Amino acid sequence: MHYFLTEEQQMIVDICRQIVKERIIPARAELDEKGIFPKEIIDEIAKSDLFRLFVPEEYGGMGTGIFEVCLATEELSRGCLSVATTYAASGLGFIPIIVMGNEEQKQKYLPALAEGSKLAAFGLTEPEAGSDAAAIRTKAVKDGDFYILNGTKQWITNGGEADVYTIFAVTNPDKGARGVSALIVEKGTPGFEFGKKENKLGIRASATRELIFTDCRVPAENRLGSEGMGFITAMRTFDQSRPAVGAQGVGVAQAALEVALDYSKVRKQFGAAISSFQAIQHMLADMATQVEAARALVYHAAKVMDSGEKNVAKLSAMSKLFASDVAMKVTIDAIQILGGYGYMKEYPVEKMMRDAKITQIYEGTNQIQRNVIALELIKRGVF
Amino acid sequence: MSEIFRIIVCIKQVPGTTEIKINPETNTLVREGVETIINPFDSYAIEEGVRIKERFVSTGSSADDIEVVALTMGPPQAESMLREAISLGADRAVLLSDRVFAGADTWATALTLKHAIKKFEKYNIIIFGKQTLDGDTGQVGPELAHMLHIPFIGYASSIEEIDNRKMTVKRLAEDRYETFEIRLPAAISVGKDINVPRVPSLRGKLRAKNEKIPVWSASELDMDENHAGLSGSYTQVIKIFTPKHLYEVKMMEGGPDEQVEELFGKLKEINVL
């Protein structure tokens, strides 16, 4: 299949494929089983300049677009969604700095994040505030040149592993969503601690922890944008990051399709390869068609965003919604094609199915994506 | 370190494993038109060269003062392999290519490399893969070191310490580890136990694409053509063949007494006893 990639885009794909083949596939089952954070693989990804894709050139990045980030994320997801999540979640953590940061903040934080010598994390979700993000309770109270931060963030990807955290906290409780501000908090700040590593269904090698703030003093200069801009910062960040979640879906679905196709050609039943049976052929045809459609939507959304279009919320949400639903469906069908073998941990598809589920949940559940799409449709019309 | 510290990595392109053809007249490998790869052991040599540079940089040296050069002798197509070496972290690369270099044995190859290395105003470390997949001799490294009158440690498995005057190299011998302290300049050869080669970086690939790779011919190396290639070779491969196994293994069975008895009989039968 030809996707009209430039030479540089093809290089990104080739580098990721080599990392997947040489580093990720040999290690993924054990990392998943034992829930080991893939530190060495992330270091390799960093050395290959892949974190630089997110970041403008003047801050040590490569100045590429969302499309390039999607290409890298898709390919890494073909290998292991835990690795791709760790990679993309660092981007999610520092996109707010790119979107809202001032020059000093960008100079201070982006070069190390582009280099991958430091990871970032995004701290919005709380026990009582998931889809209803405006319900967050973590408070930041101004005290001279500092904010005093108190509260708990839940299920934060890269929690404990990241050095730089974008934390969303209430600075004005009377203003609801407009009373939320975004703060950069560094690991090691007194009063900032981590909860235990969560034991998850999928993406088990990625680190998910609670962030606990107790009278944590954060310099006021670490606030991104003006007070009350936190919610807008979060929404703009999601607009930028959602196609990459779509790309995760495409990658894991593609991987499952590849395993199912290969298996169907070697598995013999009733004296013939099961790929000769129409029941299997139709499943494979549907899976391949769905993957291709999801990829087309993700690539399109990314390219529209890279063109400078501002109203991207709908397309961005669509790419995440559709590709993650495809990921779930295709990975389940892949298990069905492998039958009993697909249910066993000796084969990689059960992991892919467990991993795929999260893409329908994180960075806005697919129900929230539909809300975004519907509101945009009603506000701006079909086009 | 104020003056340049130069690490030269000698690499070779070898045929991708399955399609080896031999020219029946010269008994040398047919290299044209065959897909080639970096000799696998040489990937470890490139990686070690880049790691030495990173070690110096991490202890305060300027990256501009340490240079990793990939060097190969081969046909013009070898340029793509040198670009790969750059994408893996080499700062630059030089291709030694000339019709008169063709058919070189290990001695003529080492002599050609020596002439090339003498063209660099300074070199500190020369690194080789321990042997190539095609020739398999492992001779070029030690021969070159001999010609340059510098120390050579083969089969290095780690560089324990290094500064700009000396390094400590550890290697696994058959039954023991050996650790050497050697003065620089020096040459080493490395195997798979020394490191895990990195995946190329995007910036490296972009740089490799645009980098100009100089080609040095025999005249640029100031080399007498009679000392290069086939005419400069002391050895010539006359025949390549798969050896016949002239021995067979027979497992003796039964109790110790029976086995000793049988073995004694066999040895007597073939006049060993």
Short précis:
The complex is a heterodimer of chains A (383) and B (273). Chain A has 11 helices and 10 strands. Chain A has 383 residues and is of the alpha+beta class.
Could you describe the 3D structure shown?
The complex is a heterodimer of chains A (383) and B (273). With 383 residues, chain A is of the alpha+beta class. Chain A folds into 3 domains: 7-118, Orthogonal Bundle (Butyryl-Coa Dehydrogenase, subunit A, domain 1); 121-227, Butyryl-CoA Dehydrogenase, subunit A, domain 2, CATH 2.40.110; 231-380, Up-down Bundle (Butyryl-CoA Dehydrogenase, subunit A, domain 3), CATH 1.20.140.10. Chain A contains 11 helices and 10 strands. In chain A, helix 6 packs antiparallel against helix 7, helix 6 packs antiparallel against helix 10 (349-359) and helix 8 (313-338) packs antiparallel against helix 10. Chain B has 273 residues and is an alpha/beta fold. Chain B has a single domain, classed as Rossmann fold (3-Layer(aba) Sandwich), CATH 3.40.50. At the A-B interface, helix 1 of A face helix 5 of B.
Largest interface between protein chains, with number of residues from each side: A-B, 17 and 10 residues
Mean pLDDT of chain B: 89
Fourth CATH level, the homologous superfamily of chain B? HUPs
Q: What distance separates the N and C termini of chain B?
A: 68 Å
Q: What is the CATH third-level topology name of chain B?
A: Rossmann fold
Helix content of chain A: 40-55%
- Model regions low in confidence, pLDDT < 50 over at least 5 residues of chain B: none
State the name of the first-level CATH class of chain B.
Alpha Beta
Main sheet: strand order of chain A = 1-4-5-8
